[in-house]
Structure formats: C-alpha cells, structure tokens
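Suppose you are handed only two things: the residues of a chain and a line of SMILES describing fe (ii) ion. What would the bound structure be? This form records exactly that question and the answer produced for it, so the two can be stored side by side and reused later without any lookup.

QUESTION INPUTS
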Amino acid sequence: MRSQKIDVETLREWLAARRPVTVLDIRTPEDHAQWFVPGSLHFNAYDALKAGDPDALKGLELPGDRPVVTVCNAGKVSQVAAEQINRRGIEVFSLAGGMKAWSLAWNVAEVQLPGATVLQVRRTGKGCLSYIVGSASEAAVIDASVDAAVYLRLAQERGWTIRHVLDTHVHADHLSRSRALAQVAGAVLALPAQDRTAFPFSALADGQTIQFGHSRLTVFSTPGHTMESSCYGLDGQALFTGDTLFVTGVGRPDLKASPDEARERGRILYRSLRRLLELPAATLIFPGHASEPPAFDGKPVAEHLDRISSRIAAWLESEEGFLAAVLDRIPPTPPNYLRIVELNEAGAMPEGDVTELEAGANRCAVS
Ligand SMILES: [Fe+2]
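ANSWER OUTPUT
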C-alpha cells in the first residue's frame, strides 16, 4: 500500500458527503490555533516529522476502518506523516497544498424563510460567509468569496437565475469574486455608493431596494468597519450584515486607518449598530464571517438579533464604553490586507494561485 495525495476538492466532497475519514493535522499548536479543517484530529508532530524522526507519530491512535488524510501547512511534511501511517497498513492520503490550498474549501447551509431560501455558502477554509438568496426563479448573491462556478452551479440546481450580485463593502481579507460572478452570470453588480472602486457598478444608497422573485433586499447604510459598509435587509425577516455585526462581536474599525481615524470610525460604527438594534428582535442576522471554521454539518452561522444584542449589550451602553471595549480588543492586522484591498478596489483577480495572498484566517471581527 502506498501513500497518495488527495486534492482539496476531493476532500471537500468527502466531508460534504459525510464519508468516514480521519483528517489528521500534524502542525504545531500555534499553527493549529490559527485555523483548521473542521472535525480534524490534531497531533503535534511537525518538528519531529521535519527532522525525519521515524517515531514522530508514536502514541497516535487512529481508527483502522477509515482512510486518513494528513494535513500540514503546504503539503510537504504531511507526506512524511502519510508514509509513516502507510506502514501501519492504513489507507492514507496527504492533502496536496496543505492548509494554504484548503483556504478555498467551502460548504453550504440552507435556511428556509417565508418566501425565500437562503443558502449560506461558507468558505470554511477561511471563515468567509457568502449568500445566495433565492425567491421564485430568481436569486441575489451577497459577498461572493469562492469561484463564480460554485454559485452558478448551486443556483442552477435550484432553478434560480442570478439577477443581482452585491458586496456589503470593499473586503480586506479575501478577494471579492462578485465582479467576476456578475460578469459570467449576466447579473447586475451592485455595491454601496463610494468612490473607492475603479470599475462600473450600480451604486446603492440607504433605503434603496432591490427586487427579485417575490423578495426584496433593502439597503441599510452602516458605516464604521469601512465607511461604505452596508447591510441588506430581506423582506423584514433577515439582515445580511457583512463585517458590521457578527454573531459574537462587531466589525473592527481600524483597518487602513490611523489611530485617530480608528476612533472616529469606532464612533460611527457605534451609531450604525444602535440603528441595527432598533430592528425587530426576531430579525435573523447572517454575518459576513465565522470565528471558527464552519463544519460540514449544514447548520447555518446565524442568530436572531435579540440573542446577539443581549451578548453585546454591555458594550453598547455608551459610546465611550463601546470605543474603549472595541479599541482594546483589536486583533492583529490580517496578512496582505493592503494588497487585497488594492486588488478589490481595482476589481482585479491576480493570475495564477491566489492562496498565498489569501492565506490565513479572517480577522475582521472584534469579539
Ligand atoms: Fe471586512
């Protein structure tokens, strides 16, 4: 029996089909803490494997009734692990490209609402959440973060034609696929009104509505995370909040800002959040990011507004208190975000492999 490689798409399909497999992550605890394959088993053997220690996996117990997929950062050390496991007589594969390549993996959760279906398309390898909202035979896509073909296929399977493609803001953690998707789908590309992006789009203003099928999206201008950040309400039932409001936190106001600008944006974010908290308690909040890799379990990352608001109520008691709480908890800046913003403003996708540029977890939230 030889150890072999498996590509991201095949592993993604196995997990989506709930096929029994042990995903074995052999990276250092520091790397594992950043991001991981949902449901994976972590065994810290990276340094020992790299040093060629034949006992690097000593003490690791593996079920013998299912294949093992070994995972490291870039797909090299995981091959060494696979060779060692292979000697135990277990079918084993090394994930080609490692966690860097896994960054593109996605899965889906579906939520039925009266009059509309929401497909949450989760880029689980990075925690980016995008949405296809279908109503009758039409659909709108929000914050596309994986290849356009994925949205086209999912929409087609449900008999939807994609009419509108929207972004909630100019993203800093991933390359927006919205422009490319709108082009191949023949849909209207709509973005919050701003003068940052250098390509044609339909500009959205506060209160404006977008009609498709029997549904309607309503624009809420919610500056703070970025100055153009907007949320999109769906038929008074749900709200797509981008990086303004998350299930357990709020958007960071400091990217591409000086400390003074970050304070000012924090104040603006506070007012935007107060406005959102006035919406009905039962409004279902669909955020733009997850803080953990979404599992292949079909469970949406979403929460009713009253649950979220009770979680962050203490922060929102006063503007000064909010500023202190948020500015105190700012996470490290995401890698390569300046380059990603530049590309998103230009509406460009670089040639070739983008996983290096987009590597790492999203860091858009303060929680
Ligand atoms: Fe963002």
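WHAT STANDS OUT: The chain has two domains: 4-102, 107-366. The first helix runs from residue 8 to 16.
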